[in-house]
Amino acid sequence: MATDHRAFEVFKKHFSHPYTYIPWVEPERTESLSDYTQRMISPHLKDSGAVRVAIGLSFGGVVALHGLDQGFFTHVILVSSVKGRDEFSPFFRFLRIVPIYRMLPDSWLKSILVGSGLIPAGLRHEHQLMFRQMFDQFSPSYFKWCVDRLIHIPKSKQQKNVYHIHGTHDEVFAYRYICSAEAVPGGSHLMIVTRAKEISRMVEQILQQIKQTNTIQV
């Protein structure tokens, strides 16, 4: 949620495949996640016949799964994300039942999210600054929309072309509720930055598995 291409800068130094970055767009207040996914992805990916792998970080993984359902991708690699609401912690399940966030002004909710651990204090100063700059570029209504669409995603379903990499110390999506994921011992929610080389190696192993039977695009 609210991260852009800069979150992948360190990761890309260890990643040798060609790729297309798909930027976030500002959602319409009543827009469904499926409609948003279509509007966000369709201008960037035209060749529907290609074997294409999406790497989705956090809420980007949720969007990538919708892109998979809509035929934009053939495979999805989730990093620090969830496959469905059954992988939520009790806190997110509570918000689904009692949506108290809707009562907060959009600007308050954004401030709470930014100050609640989305930017861990243990990050290097330059990384903290980078994430704050990323969050600042999005409107308060964007954050409320993302929270609402996130907590109302359906339960996960069995999909053989979905891969999941998750840190055991993820501060947002607790590892103990995650099913069928490759664990990164000690990995945080932002391990795409702090453990970039290790994550790139794990992604490369997955891509090699896919490549055995397909010509891939990322």
Automatic annotation (TrEMBL):
The keyword Hydrolase applies. The keyword Hydrolase applies. One of its GO terms (molecular function) is hydrolase activity. InterPro entries: AB_hydrolase_1 (IPR000073), AB_hydrolase_fold (IPR029058). Keywords: Hydrolase. Residues 33-199 form the AB hydrolase-1 domain. Pfam families: Abhydrolase_6 (PF12697). This is Alpha/beta hydrolase. It comes from Thermaurantimonas aggregans.
